[in-house]
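A further point concerns the way the authors explain their paired sequence and structure data. The central task, working out the structure tokens from the amino acid sequence alone, is never made concrete. I therefore recommend that a typical entry be quoted early in the introduction. An entry of this sort, consisting of the sequence and the corresponding backbone structure tokens, reads as follows:
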Amino acid sequence: MYTLAVGLIVALHFAFIAYVVAGGFLALRWRRTMWLHVPAVFWGAAIATNLTDCPLTWAERWARHHAGLPPLPPGGFIAHYVTGTLYPAGWLVGVQLAGFALVAVSWALYVRGR
């Protein structure tokens, strides 16, 4: 049961990151979703800049512990699942900047389309 919870939390984590990066482009089609995207981006930025911890990472650590799985590394979800897998180690800041650039472009297109 806890192993299933870990899998669901990981999937939710990936979905949240994808929404933060690409949700602004969804709002070009479904304009009302921008009101969901703006707080998601600010929450994601707070997590990415270490202003707060991610509650999904807390939940995954808890579920992994109860499932008897090894703990996440100190860098949490990103260090365990993303760095070195989706992009090379050492590229975190560049990837974050690229993600925020995509958000800025989508928001600029959104404002322009109003």
